[in-house]
Amino acid sequence: MNLTERSYQTEFLDEELIPFEDIKQNLKELDFINKWLGGHSITIDGFRQLVENKKEVSVCEIGCGGGDNLVAIQKWCRSENIKLSITGIDLKKECIDFAKSRQSSFSHVNWIVCDYKKVSFERKPDIIFSSLFCHHFTFEELVFQFTWMKENSTIGFFINDLQRSTIAYYSIKILTQLFSKSYLVKNDAPLSVARGFTKEELSQICSQAGISNATIQWKWAFRYLVSYKHE
């Protein structure tokens, strides 16, 4: 696999008409991967950097999938006595249906089945974020996405996504072939890495979106946390 340039090969999960049980298995395994390979801790770190000392905050995740990142944020907020209002947006109804099965994990939550670009907020959320979502898009689409998150948040936004790395690619390929029961995960996990980013590419996207004060941090395991706060 040549990882010099980003791959634009379509992931299986981006296809239509995937059986719900297959999506459900995929989401369960992604939750496991996020938990044990540090994805959730990176999401909490991005959220913590923006929320600072506030005791009441609203958050929106675009491409929320099964809601596992939002569950992690909710648990953290409860431990910090922060009142949290949640909005989860995903294009796939099956993902939102799975997220709704976790309804008891949330205090105040609103699920939206829609392309995030078509969502119009009555009241803008304080923080918007995405996790393992950006790598599904082209450079031009990401410039729009970063701009949209900036314009629709009152505090700021952050993204948690993959570093394009040979070590990461072959590591996740071997692990998923050995342990995954999901054909979606086996195909899409290494492909997601091939569709991931370098720090320079993320910096270029921020620049094209007119965002000059974003921070880009490398995180274990092979992730980048991009964070922007309104001045």
Automatic annotation (TrEMBL):
Q: Where is the Methyltransferase domain?
A: 54-173
Chain segments annotated as coiled-coil in the UniProt record: none
InterPro entries registered for this protein in UniProt: Methyltranfer_dom (IPR025714), SAM-dependent_MTases_sf (IPR029063)
| Protein name per UniProt | Methyltransferase domain-containing protein
Q: Which organism is it from?
A: Segetibacter aerophilus
Taxonomic placement:
Bacteria, Pseudomonadati, Bacteroidota, Chitinophagia, Chitinophagales
